[in-house]
Fold this sequence. Notes:
Layout (H helix, E strand, L loop, with lengths): L3 H5 L8 E5 L6 H6 L2 E4 L2 E4 L2 E4 L6 H7 L8 E3 L3 H13 L4 E6 L7 H15 L4 E6 L4 H16 L4 H11 L4 E5 L4 H5 L17 E7 L2 E8 L2 H16 L4 E8 L3 H14 L1 E9 L2 H7 L4 E7 L3
Parallel strand pairs: 1-2, 1-6, 6-7, 11-12
Antiparallel strand pairs: 3-4, 3-5, 8-9, 8-13, 9-10, 11-13
Helix pairs in contact: 4-5, 6-7, 9-10
Amino acid sequence: MIDISDIRKGIMSNIVAIVTDSCASIPEALISELNIHQVAYYIHRGQEVLRDLVTIQRDEFLRWLPSARTLPTTASPGPGDYLTVYESLERQGVKEVVSLHMTSKGSGAFQAAKAAQSIAQESLPGLRIEVIDTLNVSLCQGWMVIEAARSALRGQSLETICAQVRRLIPITHMFQTADTLKYLYMGGRIGQATHLLGSLLNIKPLIGMEDGEIVALGKARSTQRIYQMMVERIERAVGRMGKIKVAFVHAGAPDEIMKLKSLVESRLECVESLVAELSPALAVHSGPGTTGLCYFPIHD
């Protein structure tokens, strides 16, 4: 068994280090267990500059958000933030890094990490860095990070890990609903789903992500029907009782997300399931009450 403390001390420098950003919303226990290195997004609330999951936590932020007169803005980490992490890993003896980031169509994180990679090629010639645009967000991005980190701890090569992530990109899917799309709209993150806005009085939206952009997938008059639509879409992709790995994701809706979890687990074989809460930097755009899932199929 690999001793994670040895990895942190840099003793096992042959292990590929996995870097991501806080919008992956990975549960803290897994971040620690899998030795994932996470870089925090920025949240600008008036004159305050907050660091996602560092100086602002989920509960506090979601209690405040509904009362906000002006929606906070978010910003991806800059090249210097990523370079600091890469430099720290190099000092620990790490030789190879895979850096995984939110869709470049919704954030500047990928571009910032690429800029840091370019600087590191000159200043850290002994460190090899591969930067990947996941074209996803939330626990879809998070699943890629988790699976990459597990492969790294098993001693897989950088090339193998990158190939694994790239296989996951087109088959990892997000389905999400919310009490309102106003947060996505106000934050400029609604993508191709703008046509839903005018009809959402008592209508629940079903949104997803295709080719790195948020898209409208449907609507219904009840959350339960939206949940059924999510399951139906997964069943069409993998079959009834098909095998999946799934993360149930919410923003301040722990009771509601368990309803979705129960429905999915009754109709699909969940090889692994997680329950996670969106980071504040994502909750800014989805709003309190958001529920959804991120999954990918498992083939024997």
